Amino acid sequence: MLLLLSNDDGIDAPGLGALARAASGLGDVHVVAPMGERSAQSHALTMHEPLRVEERRPGWHACSGQPADCVYLGVHELCGRRPDAVLSGINRGANIGDDVHYSGTVGAAEEAALLGIPALAVSLVIEGRPSPEHHYDAAAALALRVLRHLAHAPLPRRVFLNLNVPDRPLDQIAGIAVARLGRRQYAPLVAANRDPRGKPYYWVGGEPLAHDDTEGTDGYWYQRGYATLTPLFPDLTHHASLDVLRGWDLTADGAPG
């Protein structure tokens, strides 16, 4: 089995190292990851400048681009042959609910899914400041458990998986709950300032406020000590609204009377 690994925290991130060590027991591991932090880049591709790649050691390549770039390059150029699966992570922080729309970790897995390759995004739900004591090993162990099931029971084409793991020892995790996406609320924040030349600049993005506690959502199960596993699909069509739109008279200008 050939496994392609990537992330959005950068090639030197501890979560990627933990995942690579664990995955090495399943087959050949090839890593293509960003040179540095690329969080919240979603599914961005670098289209208007060249990508630079450095081989850090055999089978480990650092890429100047985004997580989705890394998967694209790995699949089409750097791995030598088509990977059997793609693992993205282990992300430093949650990708629960609305997070998946922004996450570079999820974007890398989604790129693999679009290419028809089974994929899993893995995140460790770290609260507070990063520390050497975080339990990336527990997240890696659960990721491999999921991957083994995925290898024996493939999902429909372009469906991929999102795994969130509590930051605690493996024996203190209640289990893996299959869950739908919930909502995750963040404080609105635009911090305005001026640079030394007097030009304005802004920092955006506030701290998380709350998880959706609706029963069955990923936030509900996470808050009860479970890792959560959610199947995702790139088709953003809201199928229930198709018939509503078909009922509109789109040959007329202006709003209907």
Structure characterization notes:
The structure is a single chain. Helices cover 23% and strands 27% of the residues. It has 257 residues and is an alpha/beta fold. The chain has a single domain (2-183, 212-246), classed as Survival protein SurE-like phosphatase/nucleotidase (Stationary-phase Survival Protein Sure Homolog, Chain: A, 3-Layer(aba) Sandwich). The strands form three sheets. The protein has a nine-stranded mixed sheet, sandwiched between helices. Strands 9-12 form a two-stranded antiparallel ribbon. α1 crosses α4 (136-152) and α2 packs parallel to α3 (104-114). The longest helix is centred in the middle third of the chain and has 17 residues, at 136-152. It is globular. The N and C termini lie far apart (61 Å).
Alpha plus pi helix count: 6
Question: According to CATH, what is the class?
Answer: Alpha Beta
Strand arrangement, major sheet: 3-4-2-1-5-6-7-13-8
CATH fold descriptor: Stationary-phase Survival Protein Sure Homolog, Chain: A
What is the residue-averaged pLDDT? 93
CATH architecture call:
3-Layer(aba) Sandwich
CATH superfamily: Survival protein SurE-like phosphatase/nucleotidase
Low-confidence stretches: none
Beta-strand content estimate: 25-35%
Helix and strand pattern: EHEEEHEHEHEEEEEEHEH
Number of strands: 13
Overall domain count: 1
Based on Cα principal axes, name the global outline: globular
Instruction: Give the termini distance in whole angstroms.
Output: 61 Å
Could you give a short account of the major beta sheet?
9 strands, mixed
Indicate the radius of gyration in whole angstroms. 20 Å
Q: Structural class, from helix and strand content?
A: alpha/beta
Helix content: 10-25%
